[in-house]
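subagent[fold] <- orchestrator: predict structure for attached chain, return C-alpha cells only, no commentary.
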Amino acid sequence: MQSDVQFSVLGPLRLQRNGTDTGVGQPRQCAVLTSLLLRPGGPVSLATLVEDVWGVDAPASAVGSVRTYIYRLRQVLGGCGDSSLRLIDGGYSLGLKHDALDLNRFKQAMSKGREARAERDLTSAETLLSEALGMWRGIGLAGVPGPFADAQRGILDELRLACVEEQLACQVEQGNYAEAAAELSALLVEHPLRERLSELLMTALYGAGRQSEALTLYHTTTHMLRQRLGISPSPPLRKVHEAILSGQLVLPRAAGRDAKGQEPERPKQSAAPTQLPAALPRLVGREQEHSRVERLVSEAATSSSVAICVIGGMAGVGKTAFATSAAHRLAHHFPDGQLFADLGGASSYGVPRDPADLLADLLQSFGVRANDIPRTRRARGLIFRGLLAHRRMLIVLDDAHDTDQLRELIPGTPGSMALVTSRLQLHGFVAAYQATPLTLLPLGQADAHSFLAHRLGASRTAAEPTAVDRIIQLAGHLPLALANVAARAAFRPQLRLEALAAEYTSAGSSVLDAFSGDEDPSLDVRASIMRSYLTLDREPARLFRTLSTLGTLAFAASQIADMIRQNEQQVRRALAHLVRAHLVSEVGPGRYHWNSLVAAFAAEQADIAS
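subagent[fold] -> orchestrator:
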C-alpha cells in the first residue's frame, strides 16, 4: 500500500508518513532535503547542493558528504511512493505531489483568501487566511543550517507576515476596529518599519474613535522612516493620513455598534487582576529555591529581559505549592497584577487545555468581553502580549504539557515574569526562551521531620523519632505522600505513629495504598505517578517496568544493558525519556537513581503487564 507522505517547512523541517513523524537525520542532511524541496523546476546539481549547505566555504569533503546524505535520504524515503529521490541528468530530483508540501497548501489557501477579499466576501477571506496561518508551527525551517535555508527563512517569514496583513485588513474592512487595533499594535512593536501595518493600524484607530492616536502614529512612523532609512512615508500611508485629517476616510460600520452607530457600554477593566491560589501557611525546606527565583527577578530588572523560570520535579514533589508560594512572595515586585492558569498538562483526563481557551480566560481577566475576543489562538496571543506590554505582571502557568502550549502565553516585553511548572523537562522551551530550569527534589531528612512536626505537632513527633523516620522512608520523602500521612494521623490523635507505620507495611498491601487520596484524586500518589507514566512511549515504558526487578534504587546504564542484553547507548536513550518525565534522576554520567514510591509503582505495572 502506498504511503501518505507529507513534508513541512512552516516550522522545524518535518517528514510524516501516514501521520507519524519520521526522522530526517542530522542538520546538514536536513539542509540537503530543504534544497530538494524548495528548488522547483528540475534536478538540483551536486554543486548546487554543496553551495546550499556550506556556501563558498565548502570543505573538500563536501561532495562526499552530500552523496552520503543523499544515500541516507533515499533510505528514509524508501517506500514513499511518489516522494522517491532520483538521479536525473546529473542532478537529484525529489518526486513530490503538490499538496505533499505544507508551503504549497499555505500559498493556495492564501491565494484563495486574497481572491475572496477582492470579491468582498470578507468572512470567507478571513476563514481561508486563518486556515493558512494555522499551518505554521513556529519559525520556518527552524534549526536547518546553510545559506540557502537562511534565505528561505526570510522568504517564508515575509509570506507569513503578508498573510497576517491580509487577515487583519479583512478585520478592519469588516469594522472590527478594536480587535484589529490590539493585534496590529503588538505586531508593529516587532516590525516598526512596516508601513502596511502602520496604515492598517491608523485606519483601525480612527474607526475606533481614536483619531489623535492615529495621527500620533503617523508622525512617529514618519520620524522613524526618516531617521533610520532616510525615506518619506509611502503614498498609501500619506493618503490615509490626509483622509483622517480631512475627515474623509470612508469606513464600514464598526462591529458591535448599534443602529445609531453608538458603542455599547463596556465593563470596566480590572486595574490589577490577582488570581493566585491560597499559599500554604508554611512551605518547608525550599528557602534555597526561593532565593534562586528572587535572584531571577533582580537580574531581569537590571538586564531589561523577561524572567522565566521552569519549575520541574517528579510527581508529588510540590511544584504547584512551591510556585504558588514563590508567586505570593514576589507579588510586590509586580504591582500590575498576578495571573494564574492551570494548563492541565498532567490532567487525569489525559487532554491538556487548549492554549486558545486559556488565552480567552486570561483576556477576560483584563476586562475584555467574550464577544470581543478573536477566534484564532494567534490573534488572542497578540492581544494578550499587547495587554502585558508596559506592565509589570507575574504569570503562573501551572502543569505545562509542552512548548507549543506555552508559546502564546509568555510575555513579549520586559517587566513581567512567568513561573512555569511541568512534570516534564521542557528542553525545547528552555532553549527557545532562555528560561531558567529549577528542579525540586524530595525533602531531606531534617526538612521531612519539620514537615511532619508542623502538621502533627512537635511533641507528638519528638516522642516517636524512630516511627517518624520509618514514615518518612515509606513516603519516599515526598511532600504529597507526607501530607497524606499527616492528614490521616491528624484525624487519629490517639494513635501512636509506630502503629500507623505498621499499618502501612502490613502484609498484602502496597505501600502506595497508604498514600492514596480517598476523597481528592489530586492527592493520590499512585495516580500522580501514573500521569507521568502515561507520557512514556512504548519502549521507555517497558524499560521502566523492567527496572523494578533490580531491587535497588541506584543503578547504572551498563548494568541495565547487561541485564536486558541491549546496547548501552540504546538503554541510555530510553533512560533519557524516564529522566525527562522525572521518573528517574541522572546523578552522574551513566548513573541513575529513582524514588522508592516510583519503584513500587513500576513493580505494580510490571505485575499488570506480565
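orchestrator: received. Logging for downstream: Confidence is low (pLDDT under 50) at residues 254-271. The CA atoms of residues 31 and 145 lie 6 Å apart.
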